[in-house]
Amino acid sequence: MTRLTDEQLEIRALAREFALGELRPHAEAWDAARALPEEVFRGLADIGFLGLRAPEAHGGLDLDLPTALLAVEALAWGEAAVGLSVAIHAGPVTRALLTAGTPAQQSRWLPGLADGSCLGAFALSESEAGSDVGAVALRAEAADDGWILTGEKRWVTNGVRAGLLVVFARTGAPAEADTPATEGLTAFLVEGGADGIRVVGRERTLGLCASETVTLAFEGVRLPEDARLGSVGEGWSVARDALVHGRLFVAAQALGIAQAAQEHAVRYAGEREQFGRSLDAFGGIQEKLAGMAIRIAQARALLLETAVRVDAAGLDLRGDGVSEGALHHPVSLEAAAAMAKVTASEAAMWVSDEAVQIFGGYGYMRDYPVEKLMRDAKGTEIYEGTSEVLRWVIARELVREAAGG
């Protein structure tokens, strides 16, 4: 990917304009209130940004993946919690419907996701099943007319206001003792607010405080058979594919945070004077600013190149996904997405930390924006796969490919 197209530039400009006018002026207040107002989501729907990846036939913008990521980066530049909400909604939730949904399921859910009348949430993690997806304990018991869900899901972004929950449940144990526990999982499409779903906890997070991340209890939630997403026992395949997209969208969110921190630091370094000259005249500060620019450029280049590969693979991420003009990285798409997410999230953490340092004592105060950005950045190193787990994914894929498998 050598240059941005006119459409990509227009979409990014629209997202940045929305972020500048509708998000940034309120970010501090939303962070303190620990909530996003409904008006934000209505505004996103009005400009079509809740349908970034939904097909035009269902009312969406049907943007290619790099363009959608540019939009999320710009939204996160304005307010990271908004970027996260859109990332989950337009990323793994929409992707799961596109890859595993039946035509009837897509016709029922995609129009609402596209026009904003239905916000999406991805319910995979549990108290004992974060990085270890095979430990999922929420049960889906077969009933005469469908399924009954019983258990809890933790850390569900958009969980309070979601109209659609993509839920992963255990429908059986592995057939063999040496079979991965993930083979006993199945995915379901659950209407938000269905009888038996209860919000039992709201997380108090270090950053992204405006994001309503909750624990959901499923107390005998009854689902019809057509709520099953994909085949019985293939839930991990659905989740694994969706997480490739989820990690790319989180990488875009992290880049938005990093870009905002860099811009604040550059501006402050030019305005603040010490010892008779501005901070940006000192070599040590210049080194920090240059390091910020380098890390952001590296992360963005890797993210967009990976997105080109993923788009080339279409609905099948098992292929290499190399398109004409795209750089070939000798790793699978799953490993490439992990690399992009690790690079972007760690860049966001480094850049925001250095921004705080440049602001000095003011950077540590809530009156200035960079301490919030540093708190927000930390989350991107954890959700959708911690940096440690993703490094393991990358190494596993490298070893597998070297062995010819």
Task: Lay out the secondary structure.
Elements: H1 6-23, H2 27-33, H3 38-46, H4 65-78, H5 80-100, H6 103-115, E1 119-123, E2 139-143, E3 146-157, E4 162-170, E5 185-191, E6 197-202, E7 213-224, E8 228-229, H7 235-271, E9 273-274, E10 277-278, H8 283-313, H9 333-359, H10 370-380, H11 387-402
Parallel strand pairs: 1-4
Antiparallel strand pairs: 2-3, 3-7, 4-5, 5-8, 6-7, 9-10
Helix pairs in contact: 1-4, 4-5, 4-7, 5-6, 5-7, 7-8, 7-9, 7-10, 8-9, 9-10, 9-11
CATH class of the largest domain: Mainly Alpha
Strand order of the largest sheet: 1-4-5-8
Report the major sheet.
4 strands, mixed
The arrangement of helices and strands along the chain is HHHHHHEEEEEEEEHEEHHHH
CATH topology of the largest domain: Butyryl-CoA Dehydrogenase, subunit A, domain 3
Task: Give a short summary of the structure.
This protein is α+β, with helices and mostly antiparallel strands and 405 residues long. The protein contains eleven helices and ten strands. The strands form three sheets. It has a four-stranded mixed beta sheet. It has a four-stranded antiparallel beta sheet with strand order 2-3-7-6, covered by helices on one side. A two-stranded antiparallel sheet has the order 9-10.
Description:
By secondary structure, this protein is of the alpha+beta class. It folds into 3 domains: 6-119, Butyryl-Coa Dehydrogenase, subunit A, domain 1; 122-233, Butyryl-CoA Dehydrogenase, subunit A, domain 2; 236-402, Butyryl-CoA Dehydrogenase, subunit A, domain 3, CATH 1.20.140.10. The chain has 11 helices and 10 strands. The chain has helices at 6-23, 27-33, 38-46, 65-78, 80-100, 103-115, 235-271, 283-313, 333-359, 370-380, 387-402; strands at residues 119-123, 139-143, 146-157, 162-170, 185-191, 197-202, 213-224, 228-229, 273-274, 277-278. It has a 4-stranded mixed β-sheet with strand order 1-4-5-8. It has a 4-stranded antiparallel β-sheet with strand order 2-3-7-6, covered by helices on one side. A two-stranded antiparallel sheet has the order 9-10. A hairpin with a 2-residue loop joins strand 2 and strand 3. Helix 1 packs parallel to helix 4, helix 4 runs antiparallel to helix 5 and helix 5 (80-100) runs antiparallel to helix 7. The radius of gyration is 21 Å and the shape is globular. The model is unreliable at 321-327 (pLDDT under 50).
